[in-house]
Protein backbone atom coordinates (compact mmCIF):
# COMPACT_ATOMS: atom_id res chain seq x y z
CA UNK A 1 0.00 0.00 0.00
CA UNK A 2 2.83 2.40 0.81
CA UNK A 3 4.32 1.80 -2.64
CA UNK A 4 0.98 2.64 -4.24
CA UNK A 5 0.76 5.84 -2.19
CA UNK A 6 4.19 6.94 -3.39
CA UNK A 7 3.34 6.23 -7.01
CA UNK A 8 0.11 8.25 -6.80
CA UNK A 9 1.77 11.29 -5.22
CA UNK A 10 2.58 12.97 -8.60
CA UNK A 11 -1.12 12.74 -9.54
CA UNK A 12 -2.23 14.27 -6.23
CA UNK A 13 0.44 16.95 -6.39
CA UNK A 14 -0.64 17.89 -9.91
CA UNK A 15 -4.17 18.20 -8.54
CA UNK A 16 -2.86 20.71 -5.99
CA UNK A 17 -0.70 22.80 -8.31
CA UNK A 18 -2.94 22.75 -11.39
CA UNK A 19 -6.05 24.47 -9.98
CA UNK A 20 -3.95 26.89 -7.93
CA UNK A 21 -1.91 27.83 -10.99
CA UNK A 22 -4.98 28.22 -13.19
CA UNK A 23 -6.59 30.48 -10.58
CA UNK A 24 -3.55 32.76 -10.47
CA UNK A 25 -2.91 32.84 -14.21
CA UNK A 26 -6.44 33.13 -15.55
CA UNK A 27 -8.48 34.27 -12.54
CA UNK A 28 -10.07 37.71 -12.76
CA UNK A 29 -9.56 38.15 -9.03
CA UNK A 30 -5.75 38.06 -9.22
CA UNK A 31 -5.35 41.76 -9.99
CA UNK A 32 -7.90 42.66 -7.31
CA UNK A 33 -6.34 40.49 -4.64
CA UNK A 34 -2.66 41.20 -5.36
CA UNK A 35 -2.47 44.62 -3.63
CA UNK A 36 -3.83 43.01 -0.42
CA UNK A 37 -1.20 40.29 -0.25
CA UNK A 38 2.06 40.21 1.63
CA UNK A 39 3.74 39.91 -1.78
CA UNK A 40 2.66 43.48 -2.60
CA UNK A 41 4.36 44.65 0.58
CA UNK A 42 7.50 42.70 -0.30
CA UNK A 43 7.61 44.13 -3.86
CA UNK A 44 6.27 47.56 -2.78
CA UNK A 45 3.83 47.54 -5.69
CA UNK A 46 0.47 45.86 -6.20
CA UNK A 47 0.85 45.77 -9.99
CA UNK A 48 4.16 43.92 -9.80
CA UNK A 49 2.63 41.55 -7.27
CA UNK A 50 -0.13 40.69 -9.74
CA UNK A 51 2.42 39.98 -12.48
CA UNK A 52 4.44 37.75 -10.15
CA UNK A 53 1.30 35.86 -9.11
CA UNK A 54 0.37 35.23 -12.74
CA UNK A 55 3.92 34.10 -13.56
CA UNK A 56 3.82 31.78 -10.55
CA UNK A 57 0.51 30.42 -11.81
CA UNK A 58 2.11 29.60 -15.16
CA UNK A 59 4.96 27.79 -13.38
CA UNK A 60 2.49 25.78 -11.30
CA UNK A 61 0.56 24.76 -14.41
CA UNK A 62 3.75 23.62 -16.15
CA UNK A 63 4.80 21.63 -13.11
CA UNK A 64 1.36 20.01 -12.91
CA UNK A 65 1.59 18.93 -16.54
CA UNK A 66 5.12 17.60 -16.03
CA UNK A 67 4.05 15.61 -12.97
CA UNK A 68 1.30 13.92 -14.97
CA UNK A 69 3.81 12.78 -17.61
CA UNK A 70 5.89 9.56 -17.32
CA UNK A 71 8.62 9.93 -14.65
CA UNK A 72 11.54 10.00 -17.08
CA UNK A 73 13.43 12.50 -14.92
CA UNK A 74 13.23 13.57 -11.26
CA UNK A 75 13.30 17.25 -12.25
CA UNK A 76 9.53 17.94 -12.00
CA UNK A 77 9.40 16.48 -8.50
CA UNK A 78 12.54 18.33 -7.44
CA UNK A 79 11.16 21.59 -8.84
CA UNK A 80 7.90 21.06 -6.94
CA UNK A 81 9.86 20.44 -3.73
CA UNK A 82 11.81 23.67 -4.26
CA UNK A 83 8.56 25.49 -4.92
CA UNK A 84 7.12 24.14 -1.66
CA UNK A 85 10.22 25.26 0.25
CA UNK A 86 9.94 28.71 -1.33
CA UNK A 87 6.28 28.85 -0.32
CA UNK A 88 7.19 28.07 3.28
CA UNK A 89 9.81 30.81 3.32
CA UNK A 90 7.39 33.33 1.83
CA UNK A 91 4.66 32.38 4.29
CA UNK A 92 7.08 32.83 7.17
CA UNK A 93 7.85 36.33 5.90
CA UNK A 94 4.15 37.11 5.42
CA UNK A 95 3.26 35.91 8.90
CA UNK A 96 5.96 38.09 10.44
CA UNK A 97 5.89 41.22 8.29
CA UNK A 98 2.20 41.40 7.33
CA UNK A 99 0.11 39.06 9.52
CA UNK A 100 -3.14 40.66 8.39
CA UNK A 101 -2.48 40.21 4.67
CA UNK A 102 -3.58 37.43 2.38
CA UNK A 103 -0.82 35.16 1.10
CA UNK A 104 -2.22 35.05 -2.45
CA UNK A 105 -1.70 31.29 -2.55
CA UNK A 106 -4.91 30.53 -4.42
CA UNK A 107 -5.86 33.97 -5.81
CA UNK A 108 -9.43 33.28 -4.73
CA UNK A 109 -9.65 34.62 -1.19
CA UNK A 110 -8.71 37.78 0.67
CA UNK A 111 -8.67 36.25 4.14
CA UNK A 112 -5.48 36.43 6.22
CA UNK A 113 -3.22 33.39 6.08
CA UNK A 114 -3.63 30.60 8.63
CA UNK A 115 -1.88 27.37 9.53
CA UNK A 116 -3.62 25.76 6.55
CA UNK A 117 -1.42 27.74 4.16
CA UNK A 118 1.71 26.38 5.87
CA UNK A 119 0.26 22.87 5.74
CA UNK A 120 -0.41 23.15 2.00
CA UNK A 121 3.14 24.36 1.38
CA UNK A 122 4.51 21.46 3.43
CA UNK A 123 2.39 19.06 1.35
CA UNK A 124 3.90 20.49 -1.85
CA UNK A 125 7.41 20.16 -0.43
CA UNK A 126 6.96 16.58 0.78
CA UNK A 127 5.05 15.57 -2.35
CA UNK A 128 7.79 16.95 -4.58
CA UNK A 129 10.42 14.88 -2.79
CA UNK A 130 8.33 11.71 -3.19
CA UNK A 131 7.52 12.49 -6.83
CA UNK A 132 11.22 12.95 -7.62
CA UNK A 133 11.79 9.37 -6.43
CA UNK A 134 8.93 7.84 -8.44
CA UNK A 135 10.02 5.01 -10.72
CA UNK A 136 6.85 4.20 -12.67
CA UNK A 137 3.86 6.09 -14.12
CA UNK A 138 0.99 6.58 -11.70
CA UNK A 139 -1.54 5.18 -14.19
CA UNK A 140 0.29 1.84 -14.32
CA UNK A 141 -0.05 1.28 -10.58
CA UNK A 142 -3.63 2.58 -10.60
CA UNK A 143 -4.57 0.10 -13.34
CA UNK A 144 -3.26 -2.81 -11.26
CA UNK A 145 -5.19 -1.81 -8.11
CA UNK A 146 -7.97 0.52 -9.26
CA UNK A 147 -10.16 0.28 -6.13
CA UNK A 148 -7.30 1.01 -3.74
CA UNK A 149 -6.01 3.82 -5.97
CA UNK A 150 -9.45 5.43 -6.13
CA UNK A 151 -9.84 5.28 -2.34
CA UNK A 152 -6.41 6.84 -1.81
CA UNK A 153 -7.07 9.63 -4.30
CA UNK A 154 -10.44 10.40 -2.70
CA UNK A 155 -8.86 10.45 0.77
CA UNK A 156 -6.14 12.80 -0.46
CA UNK A 157 -8.77 15.04 -2.07
CA UNK A 158 -10.69 15.20 1.23
CA UNK A 159 -7.56 16.19 3.15
CA UNK A 160 -6.60 18.82 0.58
CA UNK A 161 -10.12 20.23 0.62
CA UNK A 162 -9.87 20.60 4.39
CA UNK A 163 -6.57 22.44 3.90
CA UNK A 164 -7.89 24.64 1.11
CA UNK A 165 -8.29 28.39 1.51
CA UNK A 166 -12.04 28.23 0.94
CA UNK A 167 -13.53 25.89 3.56
CA UNK A 168 -15.20 28.76 5.41
CA UNK A 169 -17.50 29.55 2.50
CA UNK A 170 -18.01 25.97 1.34
CA UNK A 171 -18.76 24.07 4.52
CA UNK A 172 -17.47 25.65 7.72
CA UNK A 173 -19.61 28.80 7.56
CA UNK A 174 -22.88 26.86 7.14
CA UNK A 175 -21.98 24.96 10.31
CA UNK A 176 -21.20 28.23 12.11
CA UNK A 177 -24.50 29.69 10.92
CA UNK A 178 -26.26 26.69 12.43
CA UNK A 179 -24.34 27.19 15.65
CA UNK A 180 -25.33 30.87 15.75
CA UNK A 181 -28.98 29.98 15.16
CA UNK A 182 -28.95 27.39 17.95
CA UNK A 183 -26.77 29.15 20.53
CA UNK A 184 -27.80 32.69 19.60
CA UNK A 185 -26.57 35.25 17.09
CA UNK A 186 -25.01 38.66 17.88
CA UNK A 187 -28.46 40.21 18.40
CA UNK A 188 -29.76 37.60 20.82
CA UNK A 189 -29.55 40.11 23.68
CA UNK A 190 -32.04 42.48 22.04
CA UNK A 191 -34.92 40.08 22.60
CA UNK A 192 -37.10 41.67 19.94
CA UNK A 193 -37.40 42.46 16.27
CA UNK A 194 -37.49 46.21 16.43
CA UNK A 195 -35.67 48.16 13.78
CA UNK A 196 -32.70 50.32 14.69
CA UNK A 197 -34.90 53.38 14.58
CA UNK A 198 -37.14 51.92 17.31
CA UNK A 199 -40.05 51.21 14.94
CA UNK A 200 -41.47 47.78 14.11
CA UNK A 201 -40.20 46.19 10.96
CA UNK A 202 -43.63 46.29 9.36
CA UNK A 203 -47.14 45.07 9.86
CA UNK A 204 -46.15 41.52 8.98
CA UNK A 205 -42.78 41.64 10.70
CA UNK A 206 -41.02 41.36 7.34
CA UNK A 207 -38.49 44.07 6.47
CA UNK A 208 -38.57 45.78 3.12
CA UNK A 209 -36.09 44.47 0.58
CA UNK A 210 -32.86 46.46 0.66
CA UNK A 211 -29.88 45.60 -1.59
CA UNK A 212 -26.88 44.20 0.23
CA UNK A 213 -24.72 46.96 -1.27
CA UNK A 214 -26.94 49.54 0.43
CA UNK A 215 -26.55 47.78 3.77
CA UNK A 216 -22.77 47.69 3.36
CA UNK A 217 -22.72 51.39 2.45
CA UNK A 218 -24.75 52.19 5.56
CA UNK A 219 -22.48 50.05 7.71
CA UNK A 220 -19.28 51.67 6.39
CA UNK A 221 -20.62 55.10 7.37
CA UNK A 222 -21.42 54.04 10.93
CA UNK A 223 -19.41 54.61 14.10
CA UNK A 224 -19.45 50.86 14.73
CA UNK A 225 -17.54 50.29 11.48
CA UNK A 226 -15.04 53.01 12.33
CA UNK A 227 -14.31 51.42 15.69
CA UNK A 228 -14.07 47.85 14.39
CA UNK A 229 -12.50 48.45 10.96
CA UNK A 230 -9.01 48.14 12.45
CA UNK A 231 -9.72 44.40 12.76
CA UNK A 232 -11.22 43.92 9.27
CA UNK A 233 -8.87 42.78 6.51
CA UNK A 234 -11.19 41.85 3.64
CA UNK A 235 -14.14 42.91 1.56
CA UNK A 236 -17.56 41.40 2.29
CA UNK A 237 -17.24 37.60 2.22
CA UNK A 238 -20.75 36.45 3.01
CA UNK A 239 -24.13 37.68 4.24
CA UNK A 240 -27.49 36.34 5.34
CA UNK A 241 -30.71 37.62 6.91
CA UNK A 242 -31.94 36.41 10.29
CA UNK A 243 -35.00 37.66 12.17
CA UNK A 244 -35.11 41.04 10.48
CA UNK A 245 -31.37 41.58 10.76
CA UNK A 246 -28.73 41.30 8.05
CA UNK A 247 -25.50 39.63 9.13
CA UNK A 248 -22.41 40.75 7.17
CA UNK A 249 -19.27 38.63 7.41
CA UNK A 250 -15.71 39.87 6.93
CA UNK A 251 -12.30 38.32 7.58
CA UNK A 252 -9.92 40.05 9.94
CA UNK A 253 -6.99 39.83 12.33
CA UNK A 254 -7.25 40.27 16.10
CA UNK A 255 -4.20 41.30 18.08
CA UNK A 256 -0.75 42.14 16.81
CA UNK A 257 2.71 40.67 16.43
CA UNK A 258 3.05 37.04 17.48
CA UNK A 259 -0.36 37.20 19.20
CA UNK A 260 -2.18 38.04 15.95
CA UNK A 261 -4.77 35.47 14.92
CA UNK A 262 -7.24 35.29 12.02
CA UNK A 263 -10.86 35.99 12.94
CA UNK A 264 -14.26 36.40 11.33
CA UNK A 265 -16.00 39.72 11.97
CA UNK A 266 -19.81 39.67 11.96
CA UNK A 267 -21.79 42.90 11.76
CA UNK A 268 -25.56 42.77 12.35
CA UNK A 269 -27.56 45.63 10.79
CA UNK A 270 -31.30 46.13 10.35
CA UNK A 271 -32.12 44.44 7.03
CA UNK A 272 -34.63 47.16 6.13
CA UNK A 273 -32.37 50.14 6.89
CA UNK A 274 -30.57 52.24 4.31
CA UNK A 275 -29.19 55.74 3.95
CA UNK A 276 -32.70 56.85 2.98
CA UNK A 277 -34.18 55.78 6.32
CA UNK A 278 -31.43 56.17 8.93
CA UNK A 279 -28.03 57.84 9.15
CA UNK A 280 -26.55 56.15 12.21
CA UNK A 281 -27.80 52.58 12.58
CA UNK A 282 -27.47 50.48 15.71
CA UNK A 283 -24.92 47.81 14.87
CA UNK A 284 -23.91 44.71 16.79
CA UNK A 285 -20.42 43.36 16.21
CA UNK A 286 -19.16 39.88 16.98
CA UNK A 287 -15.63 38.63 16.40
CA UNK A 288 -15.00 34.88 16.38
CA UNK A 289 -11.83 32.87 15.94
CA UNK A 290 -11.48 31.74 12.31
CA UNK A 291 -10.29 28.25 13.26
CA UNK A 292 -12.19 27.33 16.41
CA UNK A 293 -15.30 29.48 16.05
CA UNK A 294 -14.94 30.64 19.65
CA UNK A 295 -15.99 34.24 20.34
CA UNK A 296 -13.15 36.72 20.69
CA UNK A 297 -15.17 39.81 21.56
CA UNK A 298 -18.66 41.19 21.06
CA UNK A 299 -19.70 44.83 21.18
CA UNK A 300 -22.88 46.78 20.60
Topology diagram in text:
Elements: H1 2-26, H2 29-33, H3 38-43, H4 46-68, H5 75-97, H6 115-132, H7 138-144, H8 146-162, H9 167-183, H10 212-220, H11 223-228, E1 238-242, E2 245-254, E3 261-270, E4 284-289, E5 295-299
Antiparallel strand pairs: 1-2, 2-3, 3-4, 4-5
Describe the fold and architecture:
- With 300 residues, the protein is an alpha+beta fold.
- It is built from 11 helices and 5 strands; from the N terminus they run H-H-H-H-H-H-H-H-H-H-H-E-E-E-E-E.
- It has helices at 2-26, 29-33, 38-43, 46-68, 75-97, 115-132, 138-144, 146-162, 167-183, 212-220, 223-228, and strands at residues 238-242, 245-254, 261-270, 284-289, 295-299.
- Strands 1-2-3-4-5 form a 5-stranded antiparallel beta sheet.
- Strand 2 and strand 3 (261-270) form a beta hairpin.
- Helix 1 packs across helix 8 (146-162) and helix 7 crosses helix 8.
- It starts with a helix and ends with a strand.
- The relative contact order is 0.12.
Oligomeric form of this entry? single chain
Q: What is the overall number of helices? A: 11
Provide mean pLDDT, rounded.
Answer: 76
| Content of β-strand | 5-15%
Distance between the termini: 56 Å
What is the spatial order of strands in the main beta sheet?
1-2-3-4-5
Task: Name the helix and strand elements from N-terminus to C-terminus, one letter apiece.
Answer: HHHHHHHHHHHEEEEE
Please give the largest β-sheet: 5 strands, antiparallel
How many runs of DSSP E, i.e. beta strands? 5
Helix content: 40-55%
Content-based structural category: alpha+beta
Using the CA coordinates, give the radius of gyration.
23 Å
Unreliable parts = 187-208
Shape: elongated
Amino acid sequence: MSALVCVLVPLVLAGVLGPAGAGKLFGRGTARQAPRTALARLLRDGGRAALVLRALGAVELLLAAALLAPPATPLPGAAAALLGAAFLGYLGYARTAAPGSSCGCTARQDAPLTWRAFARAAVVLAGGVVAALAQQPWWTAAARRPAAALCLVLAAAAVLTALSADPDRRWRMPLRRLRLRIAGHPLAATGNRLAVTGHPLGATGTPAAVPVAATVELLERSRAWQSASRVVRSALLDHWDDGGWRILQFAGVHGGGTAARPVLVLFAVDAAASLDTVREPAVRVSVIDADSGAPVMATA
